[in-house]
Q: What sequence folds into this?
């Protein structure tokens, strides 16, 4: 059957420049904000032009034992050369969790499609 | 391995109220705009409250033979009771294709997660 | 003082191709869904290329007598030639109101900036 | 005349909890990425619940002498209690400029509407 899930590509971000890197602590305290950073280009820069760029990141959290992931945020990079202005595919925000689980990052390149990564986090 | 793809649920929209319905012609002409409508609630209404609502649709197109899907649009429903105003999970836009392929719709309920559907379209 | 409001341009959509047109009934019934359509290009087409395109519409409603507008939706047109696919700046959704007021549409061209329009609607 | 610009509120973020704070250097080098951070709550926390929360930031840059602002990014905070998960209205990204000008931040509270702030930046 055709599913969108088949198009969610992944890989090692050290060698594949489309894979979003998730920067988060291994452990955090329940109800305490921590910095969650998602980036592309830590090792290999991706082009940033009108014709070819990273368009957005979506971030989800799946609490262990839950049936469903919850969307944390949607981060859209809009300037890719307009007025000689560039927004790079790097974003940080502050997140509070109350249960251990898995952070998922989804990214979209306007030419090379959808890419994902995940990172487990323990909430104490 | 953990992947976001595992969380993309689907089903028959006549019985499962979270599945987005794709309204598009079976055939269209290359380079000619057609109306593409995505909706939830054709058969069974989903709740529309601050606590529980359909948050957005993303629409992709996969041209046959291509490696990657292309995002067509992102449609965010923002009013779920603020000021007694409600935006329902229904959206139409106009799309031009030049190759046959598959339309994918992805929807997100803030409680029940991610749902998808697809529809093939022939471009003549 | 510098304000973003200074950059919200407007005009007659019959002569200025960036102004969003708001298609809505003059009157509607409280709590009953009506179709709200926003479009650019009814009279004069705007370019739709990677270099120059209408990027998104935001729609707000201001209930009369209220201090604040409420965001109804955010509609992002993502395909401007990738894979020879084009999403045109036209969107319809279904809205329920419970009070008379004013609909505002805001659009963004990646070259020519922000444009707005408004339309009053009576809720009976 | 009715304009959306009338609803763009502002104030001193030290006393008004809805005003986005723009953290950016006074000076930067042409074509060199710098960290741009936008936040609400540096001094006074805003509520973060399903009923009342900061929904998003939009960021624009107006190069001096230009007629139009360019959108840099759109940052949407999606988790406001679903699954006991919270995304706070804080975001950082990396931006490259090539001309001096003004950064504008626009924020939206689902109850108290639109708020803006600006900060000038010199590009050497
Ligand atoms: Fe790419
Ligand atoms: Fe649901
Ligand atoms: Fe334009
Ligand atoms: Fe507020």
A:
């Amino acid at each position: 059957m055709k599913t969108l899930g088949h198009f969610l590509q992944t890989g090692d971000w050290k060698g594949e420049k489309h894979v979003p890197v998730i920067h988060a602590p291994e452990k955090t305290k329940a109800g305490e904000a921590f910095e969650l950073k998602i980036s592309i280009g830590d090792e290999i820069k991706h082009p940033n032009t009108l014709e070819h760029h990273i368009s957005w990141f979506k971030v989800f959290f799946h609490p262990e034992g839950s049936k469903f992931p919850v969307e944390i945020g949607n981060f859209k990079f809009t300037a890719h050369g307009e007025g000689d202005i560039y927004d790079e595919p790097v974003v940080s925000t502050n997140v509070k969790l109350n249960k251990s689980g898995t952070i998922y990052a989804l990214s979209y390149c306007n030419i090379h499609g959808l890419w994902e990564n995940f990172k487990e986090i323990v909430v104490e």
About this structure: The first strand of chain A starts at residue 21 and ends at 23. The mean pLDDT of chain A is 97. The two ends of chain A are 40 Å apart (CA to CA). The pocket of fe (iii) ion (ligand 2) is lined by residues B 18, 46, 52, 109, 111-112 (CB under 6 Å).
